[in-house]
Write a structure and sequence with these properties.
Distance between the termini: 42 Å
Radius of gyration: 24 Å
Largest sheet: 15 strands, parallel
Strand order of the largest sheet: 1-2-3-4-5-6-7-8-9-10-11-12-13-14-15
Number of helices: 18
């Protein structure tokens, strides 16, 4: 029988990584001399996560940081209880930080950002999502963090084009920028990216609320983009996406609330091969029909994750035509696509790797077809709503999901 004493130091370090910071500091070192030494191994403290360990108090955090200043990743997400003074004290001692998550912390303001820039010279990734005090001044200060590569300031609604322009001009290594929910950003933001970041930006997430077709069309010049997500495309039309076929390195594309896009726009956007495309989300788009969906399958043969919820004009012919061309598909979300019915029976034939199927509010789909697919693909998780009225046998094999609105579904996906 294998005992704890027989484990290698490397395995023990991994085991200790599952303990809370307080346990590692106050209790584990008392077990034995070897464990005490391992508790001070830098690998154990590479990541300090106070989001999943919210029992750690302010005084305990200071003690942990004092003892283990080699931490490279600090997660303080939703830690509204921490004072601004304690945050700055931590940054002062954590000079090796590469990754910092202080999202949804209202105490973040220009003073806190100044401390980050001053003391965390090696910082690569910064997440300030939902920090209400993060504004244009914070972005201007952040330009001093010259090694920053990934920045997420989504939902920071006080940021405007001015701060964005200044930030983009002085962060030469930035390649990932997430600013969904920042409603004050306009086409000038994309123009700045095109002129300043054409060769480096690979990951971009924007709120489409104030963007126009002219601005979105410029995105086709960011030819090295690998992930592009535009939320709330209500004001956009086909003119904005016609040239998306130029984005040949895209791996992940999301266009939500795409009400005004038509089949012609998608046929143009997917007129060339997108061999790198793995994840595609086009929701609430009546213009996506069977013809354009088959074109998507032809253009993206390596697709693994597809979400076309609330695209009401898609029928079985479109889904079957897609499945025939994307055999590696693993996730298929079809919530509220009302015309679907017969495609379910063909899932094991065309997409045997499928692990998640969402058919919530697809009222024409038959219970016997879902049961047959579940028996042939035991790893397949099926999400559906109570309207199907499945039997107790079906309930054991599949999951109940209440009917959700488009907004609720979008929030669930984001989480």
């Amino acid at each position: 029988m294998v005992s704890v004493e027989s484990l290698s130091d490397e395995l023990l370090v991994k085991v200790l990584g599952y303990l809370s910071p307080v346990e590692l500091v106050d209790q584990t070192p008392l077990v034995c001399k070897k464990w005490r030494e391992l508790c001070f191994d830098s690998k154990v403290w590479d990541t300090l996560d106070l989001y999943h360990h919210d029992e750690v108090t302010e005084s305990q955090l200071r003690r942990i940081v004092w003892l283990h200043s080699s931490t490279k990743k600090l997660i303080l997400r939703y830690r509204r209880d921490l004072s601004q003074r304690t945050m700055i004290w931590c940054f002062f001692h954590l000079n090796n930080l590469r990754d910092l998550d202080i999202s949804h912390c209202p105490q973040v303001n220009p003073k806190v950002v100044s401390a980050i820039v001053q003391f965390c010279k090696k910082l690569r990734n910064l997440n300030v999502n939902g920090c209400t005090g993060f504004d244009n001044e914070c972005l201007l200060i952040l330009t001093g963090c010259r090694k920053l590569r990934h920045l997420n300031f989504s939902e920071c609604d006080t940021v405007t084009d001015f701060g964005f322009h200044a930030m983009s001009s002085f962060l030469p290594k930035l390649d990932s920028l997430l600013c969904d929910g920042v409603l004050a950003l306009h086409d000038e933001v994309i123009e700045t990216l095109v002129t300043k970041k054409c060769e480096t930006i690979t990951d971009l997430q924007l709120d489409g609320g104030n963007l126009t077709d002219e601005g979105v069309e410029m995105l086709s010049e960011l030819v090295y983009l690998r992930r592009l997500r535009i939320q709330y495309c209500d004001n956009l039309t086909d003119d904005g996406i016609y040239d998306f076929h130029c984005l040949r390195y895209l791996e992940d594309l999301s266009l939500t609330r795409a009400h005004s896009f038509t089949s012609d726009g998608f046929l143009s956007a997917f007129s060339r091969p997108h061999h790198f495309m793995r994840i595609l989300e086009i929701t609430e788009c009546s213009g996506l029909d069977d013809v354009s969906l088959v074109a998507v399958g032809r253009s993206c043969p390596n697709l693994t994750d597809l979400n076309i919820s609330w695209c009401k004009n898609v029928t079985d012919d479109g889904i079957i035509g897609l499945m025939e061309r994307v055999p590696q598909l693993q996730v298929l979300k079809l919530q509220n696509v009302k015309q679907l019915c017969d495609f379910v029976a063909l899932i094991p034939l065309y997409t045997p790797l499928l692990t998640h199927l969402n058919v919530v509010s697809c009222s024409l789909i038959r219970e016997e077809d879902l049961l047959a697919v579940s028996s042939q693909l035991p790893d397949l998780e099926i999400a559906y709503n109570r309207d199907l009225g499945c039997s107790p046998k079906a309930t054991k094999m599949m999951k109940y999901f209440d009917v959700m609105s488009p907004r609720q579904f979008a929030m669930t996906n984001r989480l």
